[in-house]
Amino acid sequence: MKLSISKKINLLFFISIQIVALTVGMIFYFRYSEALMDGATTNLLNGIYSTDIFVSGEDLSKLNPESYLSETYKSQWKKLRSVQEKFGLTYLYILLPNEKGQFYYTYETGDDPEVKATKKDDGSYHFEYVGDVSEERRMVKADQPAGLDTYFEVYDDAPSGVKKSFDSGKLITEEYKDKHGTFKSAFFPLIVNNKIIGVIAADYEITHIINLKRNSLITLILILSLSLVLAFIVRILIQKFIIKPIVKLNDGAKEVSNGNLKFKIDVKQNDELGELAKSFNLMSKNLDESFNKIKEYNDSLEEKVKKRTQELQNTLEKVQELKVQQDGDYFLTSLLTEPLLQNRSKSSLLSIDSYLEQKKKFHFKNKQKHLGGDLCILGDLNFRGKKHIMFFNGDAMGKSMQGAGGALVIGSIINSIMARSAANKKVLTIEPKQWIYEAFYEIQRVMESFDGAMFVSCILGLIDEATGKMLYFNAEHPFTILYRDGVATFLEQSIGAHKIGTPNNHLEIFEFQIEFNDVIFCGSDGKDDLVLSSDVEGIRVINEDETIILRSIEEGKGILKDVIDVIKTKGEISDDLSLMRLEFKNTNPVEIEESKPFVYDQNNLLALNNQITDLIKLKDYRSVIVILNSLKDDTFAKDYYLGICYSKIGNFVDGAFYLEEANKKVSNHKQVLRQMGFAYYELGKFEESYNYLFKFHQLVPEDQKVKIILQDLEEKQNKKSPIGF
Question: 341-584 adopts what CATH topology?
Answer without folding.
Answer: Phosphatase 2c; domain 1 (3.60.40)
